[in-house]
Every structure is written in structure tokens, then in C-alpha cells.
Amino acid sequence: xxxxxxxxxxGDSWATIAFQFGMSLYNLLRxxxxxxxxxxxxxxxxxxKEGQKKPAEEEKKIESPATPLQAEAQKKVxxxxxxxxxxxxxxxxxxxxxxxxxxxxxxxxxxxYCEIISPRGKERAIALQFQACMDMxxxxxxxxxxxxxxxxxxxxxxxxxxxxxxxLLSRTGREKRGPRINLPKANxxxxxxxxxxxxxxxxxxxxxxxxxxxALIEEKIKSLAVSDELASSTYVPYxxxxxxxxxxxxxxxxxxxxxxxxxxxDDYEELKAEIVEINEEISKSAQQQNLDEPEFIPTLSRQxxxxxxxxxxxxxxxxxxxxxxxxWELLYSPIVHGSSLSVFYRxxxxxxxxxxxxxxxxxxxxxxxxxxTWQMHHTxxxxxxxxxxxxxxxxxxxxxxxxxxxxxYMHSDLDALTMGSGGKAGLYVDRELMxxxxxxxxxxxxxxxxxxxxxxxxxxxxxxxx
Length: 466
What we know:
Residues 305-466 form the TLDc domain. This protein has 466 residues and is an alpha+beta fold.
């Protein structure tokens, strides 16, 4: 294959250059002997795929004043102020949505630097490290999280709410070739900016902005033309490894390629290599999480009668990134509020994601994290962020993440609270909140969480994330 030369222009990024010339990010960097950490500098001369460069006349047209038709096309780029949520902190910038790409560019505060906001305060970092690009073809799902603000008085404080957009991606941009299986590999989060030009947005303004952004992206995904092109422009420097993807790949890595619906041998070898990448990413996150001296220790609204600090630290590590830096508020406990499902629903109303922990008659500790508010529902609901966990009679956690075989993440009605199904319920709590059961579910492929399959509830707590 031959190559042309391309001179980098102001505002170019690795992802946009790769997209312009129909190349994968990996190939663009490889043929130029660069890495994803290399700086993109105006004037650089890069090798690009031959025959893909735009004609000079077309470039001139773009640089000339826009015609009415071009002006109409430019309106299709929707721009929204957001915070890119990373394990280092939140970075303010612009999310640009086009027909085929979603790009994030940090705000520059001083030369090539941007600002990171975290519990440690404000810090500076090289802005290039936080540039991200998502190819619409790689987005499996997009959804909105509504959560209490860090500064909320409680989880029920409607004035202190924030909105996050979550993207489930089939790739991260570090792969050598095209996507192998249509499974969520990475979770990426952006928080809708609650300040615009120093003016604080109201709750309804934030909610409307988030819903409009979601509707726009969903519409563009639906209108994508069918293509066999494997090249992708996705590159996200910071993401949560989707626990379901890691689990599925590990459980099937010894199976034949046909069993996991992937391409023949060479692609299967790449799938094995992805395990290394996934584990490296998890290790990066884990290195920042010392169980005895973690970077952030949640403050509890009252002392837990079930969990030790070490247990809390371990549960926190497995929460989505956007929830790890939050304090815990006790929403419900039979000891405090009484054993009744009606009281339970009243206490947890509109509180968002939560952690339920149970101690059974033999003092085994177990529970689950749910992505949505517990509420009366006729069908199963929730997302693949839900998971079950158990400490048994120790202080070492074992987690069970969704298998994606089904979507029976959580269910709640007048008779019971349930997590997981297919076979048996992974976790079942009866209407009196005094007993329950735990069995193997296809949803989470979990072992029995409690000391016995049928258990009596000694203590139960539900914690909201403020």
C-alpha cells in the first residue's frame, strides 16, 4: 500500500485525521512510528492512506466563505459543554456531535494545558491527554444517569441534581483491527455542565439538555448507513472496563471462536491479546485504590451495622467511576424504619443507584449494587452496571457481573425485591424484608451469596450515593 503526505493543521487530532483518511487510529500511528501520547502539532508531515486526500479545490471550498448549503451542513454539528469523567478527575470541555463522530476537546486554560477537578482540588494537565473521539458505529448504547450533586444535602435534594451521559462502546481505539464482537467493552461518562457562562443551570434546564443530547445521538445512530468498513475513529483515553466484557472473554477464551461469534483464528488471537489490555486498564485503576488507605474514603451518614471500612472500600472500587467519589447516605434499614416494602419504597424514592447489603443468620455479608432507583415495576429493569457481591464470613469481596445472556438485572413489586433470574434468582428478598434466598442465576452466573440458599435476614441496609 502506498502513502500520501498530510500536513497537520490547527485543530487536528489523531482521531480526526484517521477518520478523514479512512484509517484506524492504530494504523495511522504505526506507519508514522508514533504513539497515542505523541503530540499533534501544526506543520507535522504524516503518512496517510494513498488516494484518500481531499482534492485541493475541495479544501479551498472549505476554507472559503460558507455557501447557504454549507452553512446548513455546519449547523448539524451540535456542541455541548460537558465534563469528561476520568479516574484523575473531571475535565471541562466541548462535546461535538456530528453525523458520524462524537468528539471531546478540553478547554485550554494556559497554552496546552487544561484543568482537572477532583476531590484533591484543581490541577493542570496536558489537554491532549484528554481528547477523545467516538465513532457512532462503535456506540452500542447511550443512556442518562441522574444523580445527586456532590454538594447535595441528601439524595432527595432535587435542586442539587446532576446528569451524566453514559456511552457503552464496543472498542476503545487501542485495538489493532476492527471490532470483533458486538459487546460493550468500555463505559465512558460525560457530565452535563451545570454552569454555562458563569450562569448556573436550573434542574429543568440540565434535564432538558441531557434528554435533547441523548435524543440527538440516538437519532444519528439510527440513521447511520450500513457499512462493511472496519476502520474506526474511536479513541477514548479514559474509560471504565465493562466488567461483563471482561468476564465473557475470560470465560470463553478456551472455547472455539464459533462459540463466541467471532471471526477465525487470527481475530481470536487478538481477542486473547485484549485480555491483557483489559487487565492493564483495571490494574491502573486498582493501583490508585489501596484498600487500607484509599485515595477517597466515603463518609457515611451514620455508622453501618454490617460493613467494616475495608468492606466499604472494596465495594467502592467496583462502582462505576462517576460514583466512586461519593459519600454514602443510609436510605433504609428495618432497624431504623421498620420492616415493610411500602416503607422501603417511600424511603428510596427517586434516589438513583444504591448499594444493598444483608447480613444473614450465620453473619455472612452479601448484597448488590443497582443502577436504578428501586421502584414498583411490572418487568425487569436496570442496566449492565448492576452486580452482585458476597463477603461470606470474611472481609474479602467476590463480585458477580452480568453475563449479558439476559437483562434480568433487577425487579421489584409488592411481593419481593429480586436481582438476576434464569435458573434461580441471584438475590431474592421477600415482602417482609425478613428472609430471602440466593441461587445460581444466568444473569450474573453467581454462586450462592448467603451461608445457605434460603436465609433469614439479621440486618439489612440500603445506601444511596450522594
